[in-house]
Amino acid sequence: MTTDYRTDALIQVKHLGKRFGDLEVLKDINVDIRKGDVVCVIGPSGSGKSTFLRCLNRLEEPTGGNILFEGVDITAPKTDIDKHRQKMGMVFQQFNLFPHMTIMKNLIIAPMKLQGRPQKEAEEEAMRLLERVGLADRAGAYPSQLSGGQKQRIAIVRALCMKPDVMLFDEPTSALDPEMVGEVLNVMRDLARERMTMVVVTHEMGFAREVANRVMFMDDGYFLEENAPEEFFAHPRNERLKNFLSKVL
Amino acid sequence: MSDKFRADFYQNFIEDDRWKYMVNGLGNTIKITFFAVLLGIVLGFLVALIRSTYEKTRKLWFLDMLCRVYLTVIRGTPVLIQLMIIYFVVFGSMRIDKVLVSVLAFGINSGAYVAEIFRSGIMSIDNGQFEAGRSLGFNYRQTMFYIVTPQAFKNVLPALGNEFIVLLKETSVAGYIAIQELTKGADIIRSRTYNAYMPLLAAGAIYLVMVMIFTHFVQKLERRLRNSDH
Ligand SMILES: Nc1ncnc2c1ncn2[C@@H]1O[C@H](COP(=O)(O)OP(=O)(O)OP(=O)(O)O)[C@@H](O)[C@H]1O
Ligand SMILES: [Mg+2]
Fold it and tell me: C-alpha distances in angstroms, B33 versus A10, A220, B182?
C-alpha cells in the first residue's frame, strides 16, 4: 500500500510501526486522514487499535515510520509535540476528567494556560459548548457528581475547548452503561455534521455505518481493509474481516 | 496533697523564674519543628519528583541514584546519630547556631520520609490523568504541577500529618547537642529541683496539646479538600 500525497491530508501516516519489546503490535500502517474525514477503526481486541490512535499524538512513541500532521513530521526528534497536541483533541474510554477541578475549571485550564486566553473569554467559549451538549447547568459541579455519559460529554467538550483540528476517540462509549451510549454518540454525530475531522476507535458498528465516511479494519498489525461504510459492511472482502463481522453484527 | 502540689508547682515553675526554661524550650521546639517541616517538604517534594520522573520516563537516572542513596542512609540510621554527626562532625570546628543545625538535621531527616510519602502519592494517581494532561498539550512539568501533584497531595495529607507529628516529638532529642528545647528545659528544671514528675509531666502535656491542635487542623484541611471533589 502506498500513500500518495494529497494536499488536503491532515494526517499522513507512513509505514508506522510500534513494538513493545518483542511484541510487534503495528507492523506497517499507512493511511491519510483528510480534513473532514470521519474514520472509524474497528478490529478484534488486542489488534492494536488503541496503540495506533495513541501513536497519532505520540502518547505512544512509534518505533518506526513517520506521521505528518498538517505537513509537519511530528515523529521527528526535534518536534515540539506539546504544541501539536494542542491541535489534536483526545477522548479516552475512561473519560479522565480532572477530579480536583470543577467542570468549568476542567474546560478552561488548558486554553488559559496553554493558549493564553483570558479567563472570561475561555469561560464564555466553554459555556457555549456546554450548552450545545446540554450540560450548562453542571458547570460548577465536580466530575464525581456526574454520570458516565455526562462525564464523557464533558471530556469531549474539554478537548473541543482547545479548538483542535482533529479529534481522536478511543472507544468513547465502551465504559458506559447502555442507556448512556446514545447521548455521547449524539454529540459525536453533531461534531461529524460540522465537519470536524475525527478518528474513532469503536465497537459501535451502527455508529460507524451511519456516521463514518471511511471504515478501516485493523488486525495483525495492519489495516487489512478500508472502504466506505456501505461497501465495508455489505461486501467485506478480507476473510478475517468477514469472520470478525459475522461475530459482532 | 493540694498543698504539696502548690509547693511543687511554685518550686518548679515560679521560683527563680524557672517557667522560662519551659517557655524558651517550647519556643525552640516550635522553631525547630516549623522550619524543619518546611525544609522537609521542599526536600521531600524535590526528591519525590525526581524519583517519580525517573519511574515514569527513565530520565534523571543519576539524580535518582543520588536520591536513593539519600533515602537509604537517612532512613537506615537514627536521627540522633544524624543530628550529632551534623553538629560535631560536619560543623564541628565552626561556631554555628545550634537551632539552625537542628533545623538542618531534622529537615534533612524528615525530607526522606516526606519524599516517600509524596512519591507513593504521585504514583497512586491513575496514569490516565497524566495522559489526559499531556493530550491537551501540557508538558511534563505542567501536567505534574496542575494535575498530578494537587491530587497526590490530597491523598497523602493524612500520612504527611502523621510525619509532622513524629517530627515534632523527635525534636526532643535535640537536647543532646545542648539545645534547650522543651524536653531539655524540663530536664534542667528537674536537675535543679530534684523533682521529676512535675516538669516532665508538664512537658509531656504540652507535646500532647500541640499534637492535638495540629491533628485538629489537619483533619479540618482534609475535610475541606475532600468536600471539594466528592
Ligand atoms: N504499554 C504496553 N506495553 C506492552 N504491551 C502493550 C502495551 N500497550 C499495549 N500492549 C499490547 O499491544 C497489543 C495491542 O493493544 P491495543 O490496546 O492497541 O489493542 P486494541 O486493539 O486497542 O484492543 P482493545 O479492543 O481491547 O482495546 C496488545 O497485545 C497489548 O497487550
Ligand atoms: Mg483499545
Answer: 58, 61, 12
